[in-house]
Amino acid sequence: MARLSSIVKNDRRFAIASRLKEKRDALRKVIKSVTASDEEKALAVVQLSKMPRDSSFCRYKNRCMFTGRCRGVYRKFKLSRITFREMASKGEIPGIAKASW
Q1: CATH number, domain with residue 48
Q2: CA–CA separation, 60 vs 54, rounded Å?
Q3: How far apart are the first and last CA of the chain?
Q4: What does the alpha-carbon distance between residue 16 and residue 80 come to, in Å, rounded to a whole number?
Q5: What are phi and psi of 60, to 5 degrees?
Q6: Domain that holds residue 69
Q7: In whole angstroms, what is the distance from residue 31 CA to residue 84 CA?
Q8: How far apart (Å, rounded) are the C-alpha atoms in residues 63 and 89?
Q9: What pLDDT digit, counting tens, does each position of 53-74 carry?
Q10: pTM for the structure as a whole
């Protein structure tokens, strides 16, 4: 299991990124805009650089809901490959069965 501090840090990053998503997208839109003046674009770049680093979604890491493992996580189920295999073999995931042909 992952350290609790890394799980909490990741949850905090997701919360910050979710909260500041609209503001960040608006600043990016101004920077890419053709109609905006150079001063507006420069101001938007400065404001974007002053925002917290954790407000970007690329800082967020997909983690397993049960173990907190960050590698080998299936996005659809939010489970690591190890936990997924255990739960699937026990029949705890609906609609998943071991393949046989």
Answers
A1: 1.10.287.1480
A2: 8
A3: 35
A4: 24
A5: -80, 140
A6: 62-101
A7: 42
A8: 21
A9: 999 999 999 999 999 999 999 9
A10: 0.77
